[in-house]
Amino acid sequence: QLHNETSTGQAVTVELFLTFQLVLCVFASTDERREDNLGSPALSIGLSVAVGHLLGIRYTGCSMNPASSSPPSRARLVLLTPLFSPPQVFWVGPLLGAAAASIIYHYILFPQAKTFSERLAILKGCEPEPDWAEREARRRQSVELHSPQTLPRGMSE
């Protein structure tokens, strides 16, 4: 049920942004490639959920998760309703928000430097080239910042 005379378009937008910020927070706080993570990922994700609920509860009841908005007995009914009817708001908004957050994080904010053949091998489900691990270690050393007096991580005297 939508609150405060919120239209379905506004509700989809609210759910999209709430899920977007939550998924972006999860990616940023749990990414093992990042070494600048400080604090607890559980705390940052929990605060993100709390902020999302505080901002969205007034407009849509704040779903941020399609599974929590539709009980199993109503799943068939929800999937058969028109695309932007009130029950579908809680599916369309979060799915679009999560997809947008994934694309932005993985391709703009923190992209992985892989060649086309490596990406193709991952899509096919087979192992990348044999020297991939060595090239990845060299690439990480080349992009790390270090002072002239210290050696980059992974290199010993």
TrEMBL record:
One of its GO terms (cellular component) is apical plasma membrane. Residues 133-143 have a biased composition (Basic and acidic residues). It is a multi-pass membrane protein. Its main location: membrane. Pfam families: MIP (PF00230). The chain crosses the membrane at residues 12-30, 42-61, 89-110. The keyword Transport applies. Signal peptide: none annotated. It is found in: Cell membrane. Gene3D superfamilies: Glycerol uptake facilitator protein. Residues 133-157 are annotated as: Disordered. Keywords: Cell membrane, Membrane, Transmembrane, Transmembrane helix, Transport. GO terms for molecular function: water channel activity. Belongs to the MIP/aquaporin (TC 1.A.8) family. This is AQP2 protein. It comes from Pycnonotus jocosus (Red-whiskered bulbul).
